[in-house]
Design goal:
Blueprint (H helix, E strand, L loop, with lengths): L4 E5 L5 H11 L1 H7 L5 H4 L2 H10 L1 E7 L2 E10 L4 E9 L8 H17 L3 E7 L3 H9 L3 E7 L5 E8 L8
Parallel strand pairs: 4-5
Antiparallel strand pairs: 1-2, 2-3, 3-4, 5-7, 6-7
Helix pairs in contact: 1-4
Length: about 160
């Protein structure tokens, strides 16, 4: 590949690239469910900018290009909500998603005191489920998202980080 992918905290200047990447990456999820109104596709750039400022947001970079992203925030019950993990389609399957998860988990535990991590994905998203289970997440429930997609809720305790980064 020539260059290596680096993982770092996102800056406000990354918001537009994250926004475009998120839109690209979640097309396949939308197609899987026949629903193009899923949250990652209808989120506004302003809303994403606010998340970059307020939440733990990490990006994967290949040179100057943002090729992956993940967000996390702490909840009132001591858990950390992790979401919108995405990796550019041309770079999927190379461990970037696991590295992004490890980075956001570490920051949420060390900087924000998270005691466990929580995330969700659509019930048909087998690739996502494989990744999450491989890095220690277990199914704890199901729910329907506001846009009508049946979701699987997964959790794991803090301290059980991704071992295959």
């Amino acid at each position: 590949m020539g260059m290596s992918v680096t993982i770092s905290a996102a800056t406000e200047q990354d918001a537009e690239q994250i926004f475009k990447l998120q839109y690209l990456c979640f097309q396949s999820e939308a197609a899987l469910y026949g629903n193009y109104r899923i949250d990652p596709l209808v989120q506004s750039l302003d809303s994403l900018r606010q998340e970059v400022v307020a939440d733990c947001v990490f990006v994967a970079r290949l040179g100057d290009e943002v090729v992956g992203s993940v967000r996390g925030s702490t909840t009132q019950d001591g858990a950390a909500a992790i979401g919108k993990l995405c990796v550019h389609p041309r770079l999927q399957g190379h461990g970037i998603g696991a590295r992004l998860l490890r980075a956001v988990e570490a920051a949420l535990a060390e900087e924000r005191g998270a005691t466990r991590f929580r995330l969700h994905t659509g019930h048909r998203s087998e690739g996502n489920l494989r990744l999450y289970r491989r890095v220690g997440y277990q199914t704890v429930g199901t729910f329907d998202s506001p846009d009508g997609v049946p979701m699987i809720l997964l959790e794991k305790p803090a301290g059980t980080y991704v071992a295959t980064a």
